[in-house]
Amino acid sequence: MPTPNGSAPAPDDALAADDALAALSYEEARDELIAVVARLEAGGASLEESLQLWERGEALASRCQQWLDGARERLAAAQSQERSGEDVPGESR
């Protein structure tokens, strides 16, 4: 994403942003996404700021989807193990 002066961010900045996004919990990403949407809906931001907010919102939505997909996979694995009679990790019988 370009910086306000029109130049692309340094590669190290982009990597740090990716790492920070990957470190967010589902709840943190969801809450920040809600705040981004509220700022966009409120209007009043410059075009550049609106674009940056939109891009951040897309990244946050993707991060939330990763969490939800991972949870769905874990549930499917637990259900599969339960059906096959295997012990589900973390459960006692």
Concise description?
This protein is mainly α and 93 residues long. 72% of the residues lie in helices and 0% in strands.
Secondary structure blueprint with pairings:
Layout: H1 11-22, H2 26-42, H3 47-84
Enzyme class: hydrolase
Function: Bidirectionally degrades single-stranded DNA into large acid-insoluble oligonucleotides, which are then degraded further into small acid-soluble oligonucleotides.
Family: Belongs to the XseB family.
Commentary on this structure:
The protein is built from 3 helices and no strands. The chain has about 90 residues and is mainly α. Helix 2 packs antiparallel against helix 3. The chain has helices at about 10-20, 25-40, 45-85. The chain has a domain at about 25-85. The chain is elongated. Belongs to the XseB family. It catalyses: Exonucleolytic cleavage in either 5'- to 3'- or 3'- to 5'-direction to yield nucleoside 5'-phosphates. This is Exodeoxyribonuclease 7 small subunit. Bidirectionally degrades single-stranded DNA into large acid-insoluble oligonucleotides, which are then degraded further into small acid-soluble oligonucleotides.
Shape: elongated
| Whole-number mean pLDDT | 84
Radius of gyration: 19 Å
Counting DSSP E segments of at least 2 residues, the number of strands comes to: 0
**What's the number of helices?**
3
Parts with pLDDT < 50 across at least 5 consecutive residues = 1-8
What class do helices, strands and sheet pairing give? mainly alpha
Beta-strand fraction estimate: under 5%
**How far apart are the first and last residues' alpha carbons, in Å?**
52 Å
Order of helices and strands: HHH
Share of helical residues: over 70%
For the sheet with most strands, the description reads:
none
Protein name: Exodeoxyribonuclease 7 small subunit
Subunit structure: Heterooligomer composed of large and small subunits.
Keywords: Cytoplasm, Exonuclease, Hydrolase, Nuclease
GO molecular function: exodeoxyribonuclease VII activity
